[in-house]
Amino acid sequence: MKVFSKNYAGLIAAGLAALALPSAPIAAQNQSGSTQAQPTANNPFGIPDDFSIFDQNSTGERSATAVVNGYVITGTDIDQRVALVTAASENELSPQELERLRVQVLRNLIDETLKIQAAQALELPADRAQVEQTFNQLATQNFGRNPERMTEYLESIGSSPDALKRQIEGELAWENLLRRNITPFVNVSAEEVNDVLQRLEDSRGTEEYRLGEIYLSATQENRAEVLRNAQRIMEQLQQGGSFVAYARQFSEATTAVVGGDLGWIRLGQLPTALAAAAREMQPGQLNGPIEIPGGFSILYVINKRQVLMADPNNAVLSLRQISIEFEPDVTQEQAEARVNQFSAFIQSLRGCADADRATQELGATVVANDQITAGSLPDQLRNIILQLQVGQTTPPFGSPQEGVRVLMLCGRDDPEDVGAPTFDAVMSQIEQDRINKRAQRYLRDLRNDAYIEYN
């Protein structure tokens, strides 16, 4: 069980609060007698409510490219990275949305460049052979025995192998930096680990969640802009965008490298707002943007289970599928009549041994499979089948075009209850949490020290 906590957001918020000046009157008289806004906790820069903007023609412009400590990020770099993000989206982006996406991608490329440069400065660059190996692994995972098709695919969507390899290089370089500058200085005591193990045992049977998260940090000054970015990402996800792809590109948490996957986590480990949202969600649902201390999160529930209990998704099922087909020119009335006949027949079956009767009496097709894992079934069907007793069937489902069918449960082998995670696994979880917190501060320092010129 791998868990990445998000408590680093609270540290960022606490840091901002510490920097804020004490509350003061909103306005004061300057020497000329006019009012002047004073810094407050909610307005640390003392920006007045009414002001004039000079050089109106440049307002709202966003640079297309940048030079980061001498390294040029080109328009082509941005275009190809945007293509990686949008490839999984079913809907075409409007010109306005595309431009906003380009701005966000440029920010990500700047951070990526800072990570690569920092690693090079410490003589910890990403190994080129490892970059190629990771690229080839991705190609094999997605294209099986034809990894060369990865290059064809990337070029077909307007990206390139170099764009993906650059992203891999940034991730590997960041891992090198964390191993050198952060991980050795993170310590976890045996008492802390034992305390976590005891709390796990005390919470046996309660629910835990496997969550995905896209985290965007925000300050009081840029809150509105970050919120708009998060809302646009949410819209793209709802329109079919890949959560993993968007998390890899946009999330500012260290879990971005694994597509935002937090692993299995209990709600008590989450900020209050995220825990409240997840509690009301079902697997496959999205929620966000959700404001938390330090920024905004978009939450995705991948799955749910009970702490230290057997996961019903791992149950091995024995199923019979009984299906009927329709003539191509069947009318709606004819189809409904045949489905009604099919439903009545299914209700007359006396168990799995009786299922083959459907072939002789209805001309139905009966297919048996005794080794289906519950987790491999579609969510809607899985939830129905896990509530069935042996010999019972699902409601008929399908269509006249694809055929109508039912699944009959003929056996179920439940997995054994799982034990608590090992001492080493819990220690690794706590260490990763602390690494996440320090990594955010480290990246913020790299940004502050960088020389960036926008073109």
Automatic annotation (TrEMBL):
Gene3D superfamilies: 3.10.50.40, Porin chaperone SurA, peptide-binding domain. InterPro entries: OMP_Chaperone_SurA, PPIase_dom_sf, PPIase_PpiC, Trigger_fact/SurA_dom_sf. Keywords: Isomerase, Rotamase, Signal. The keyword Repeat does not apply. One of its GO terms (molecular function) is isomerase activity. Residues 206-303 form the PpiC domain. SUPFAM superfamilies: FKBP-like, Triger factor/SurA peptide-binding domain-like. Residues 1-28 form the signal peptide. It comes from the Bacteria. This is Parvulin-like PPIase. It comes from Erythrobacter rubeus.
